[in-house]
Design a protein that fits this description.
Mean pLDDT of chain B: 90
Number of helices of chain A: 3
Order of helices and strands of chain A: EHEEHEEH
Number of helices of chain B: 5
Strand content of chain B: 15-25%
Largest sheet of chain A: 3 strands, antiparallel
Helix content of chain A: 10-25%
Number of strands of chain B: 6
Structural class of chain A: alpha+beta
Strand order of the largest sheet of chain A: 2-3-5
Radius of gyration of chain B: 20 Å
Number of domains of chain B: 2
Shape of chain A: elongated
Shape of chain B: elongated
Oligomer: heterodimer
CATH architecture of one domain in chain A: 2-Layer Sandwich
Bound molecules: iron/sulfur cluster
Low-confidence stretches of chain B: none
Distance between the termini of chain A: 21 Å
Low-confidence stretches of chain A: none
Structural class of chain B: alpha/beta
Number of strands of chain A: 5
CATH topology of the largest domain in chain B: Beta Polymerase, domain 2
CATH architecture of the largest domain in chain B: 2-Layer Sandwich
Mean pLDDT of chain A: 92
């Protein structure tokens, strides 16, 4: 990571996220929240079904985020990425809380 | 590149003055870091001609927080020291105007806000989003406290 990358908004790549909770626990502003549930998946040849975490909802509250980038740095699965887009005002306080879909839409395209 | 010099408290003013004379004429900031038991006072100076920086630190025992004021040596030290004084509970001796700068009133707990012993009440009142739940909670050997939150703060929390 370099300090030159554009810290506009954080993009979530939901398929890469394993719900490990590391970003939530490391965020100094406590502004990431994750809802998830467990599912059992049976794999061929496996003796027992495996329990996996499934992401239900991922939110970042950009009203609290201080753009430190710790979440992007610590994610072991590269599921969080900085994107340059920086103009996302909101008319209400809750409009600064970006949910899974909104976070995923902050692509570079 | 930032040059770093750690100096004994007795050398603090002389070291600042030497740095200033050596070209580090602009004071960027004075602040402090609570190292628990010891408070480190930090001054960052810039050489306006070369843009090089110099960081000076001195360590003060937490029960004897008196540091000679740098305002006689560096113009502009006054405000930084006023803020550092109220945030860390340091007395800058010989300061020309030791009024608080930012805090309207002293914290009710009596602990200066940037000392590590100062409880982050928001963090006690709010539930940590990282709290393990469900299976993860059952798997956790002991309740996990959020980073930076101390046991003794939580004891005052109403049981859920
Ligand atoms: S950038 Fe920092 S404050 Fe913002 S969500 Fe990530 S860890 Fe939290
Ligand atoms: S650290 Fe990465 S993989 Fe883990 S929960 Fe956060 S975004 Fe998902």
């Amino acid at each position: 990571m370099t300090s030159r990358e554009p810290r506009g908004v954080i993009q979530l790549i939901p398929d890469a996220c394993t719900v490990c909770m590391i970003c939530v626990q490391e965020c100094p502003s406590w502004c990431i929240a994750i809802d998830s549930h467990h599912e059992e998946v049976s794999e061929e040849g496996a003796r027992r079904p495996r329990t996996v975490s499934v992401l239900d909802r991922f939110t970042i509250d950009f009203g609290l985020c201080m753009y430190c980038g710790i979440c992007v740095d610590v994610c072991p699965f590269d599921a969080l990425e900085w994107q340059p887009q920086h103009d996302y005002p909101a008319a209400t306080r809750s409009g600064l809380e970006h949910d899974t879909d909104r976070l995923a839409s902050h692509g570079s395209s | 590149m930032t040059e770093v010099r750690e100096v004994p408290l007795t050398e603090w003013l002389r070291a600042l003055d030497q740095a200033r004379a050596a070209g580090f004429a602009m004071l960027d900031l004075i602040t402090a870091v609570d190292r628990i038991g010891v408070v480190e006072v930090v001054a960052v100076l810039t050489n306006p001609d070369t843009a090089q920086r110099c960081r000076l630190t001195t360590r003060v025992p937490a029960d004897q927080l008196a540091v000679p004021s740098a305002s006689s040596v560096l113009d502009g030290a006054s405000w930084h020291e006023r803020e550092t004084a109220e945030m860390f509970g340091i007395i800058f001796t010989g300061h020309p105007d030791p009024r608080p700068l930012i805090l309207r009133e002293a914290p009710a707990s009596g602990v200066p806000p940037l000392r590590k012993a100062s409880a982050l009440t928001e963090r006690v009142a709010r539930e940590w989003p990282g709290t393990p739940s469900g299976d993860d909670l059952r798997r956790a050997r002991r309740p996990q406290l959020p980073p930076g939150v101390r046991d003794e703060w939580m004891s005052e929390r109403e049981p859920a």
